[in-house]
Cysteine sulfinate desulfinase/cysteine desulfurase (Candidatus Actinomarina minuta), 382 residues
Amino acid sequence: MKKNDYLYLDHAASTPMREVAFEAYKRTESEAFANSAGGHELSRRAKNILEESRDKIANHFGAAPKEITFTSGGTEADNWIIKMPFINNQNKNAELVTSAIEHEAVLGSAEWVESLGYKVHFIGCDNAGVIKVEDIINQVNSNTEIVSIMMANNETGVIQPIKEISQNLKKIDQNLIFHSDVVQAVATTKIDFHELGIQSAAISGHKIGGPKGVGIMFLSSEVKIPSFLHGGKQELERRAGTVNVSGVASLSAALEEQQTHMELQNKKILKEREDFEQIIKNNLDVSVVGEVVDRLDHISNIQFKGIHSETLMVALDLQGMGVSRGSACASGAQKPSHVLQAMNVSDDLINSHLRFSFGWSTQQGDGTKAANIVLTSVKGMQ
């Protein structure tokens, strides 16, 4: 099967690189391959590209350039923000507040903090996947170091009330760090970090048509945390190691195209998702997760009653369509989704969910095509 014949609906896991991103990567590797920390002409050329990219990226998110640090991806940024304030913390009663439906990068970091003896509060959600603001606020006290709540869930697409949470947190403690993993949200959402009221955020390049292995950590200038990697003075003296300038340039190019065409892109994506869901609902016994609340345009998590998701996923793959059961970062664990468990999905249905996620490369008619493949596959299983 040719690559172009395969219907890819797993954009929430990773997106194909945009052509502008690919060209920016190649051009930078060819013309500015030198170490950006060096002292000669080619190093200065690389440094200029790095800082120009930082300026452009910061502008897209309403941030100052000095508030943008380039990382290896969203996972590194999440680990950095959540772990480092607890390293050698003089307050042994320090606490972390997060949710039970976070990405594995946040949950793993929170569990590490907990292993050090600090208290971690894992806040639940309602049956639609929404975290209640009051449930978060009720766990915040004078010992709380960080609150970390994702902007939108990577499995369900359900959007959380980040701005409302921020406003309430500021009433309690102006110095509290409010972190948000916006890795999934940024794919179809225009974000202004300061307008949202968050102090830190994590972004991955490959979720928006950029390259893998490069990401962004937003850290408000009002927040100071220790470095995560040591051995050099790169990245505003925050992160040691030779900077992936080609990856940064590629990410900047992808973000520029995405932000410029986001309204048109989202309109296309939403139509395909709606066409897909309507056909599926009209013909099968299914439920769409988060259908009654705000969710990202590109994610459709569907419960197929009486069908095991693994079996259906394999059948769809054989029919030329790629989807997932949930987070790619946890897919190898072979255990029920912690997100669906938090949403109180019953044991007999929790393994009946598949995530279909559309993206910038989705074509007109893909929603209908995908629905027909699902119908054919389900019929073949009966």
In short: Residues 126 and 165 are 16 Å apart (CA to CA). DSSP finds 13 helices and twelve strands in the chain.
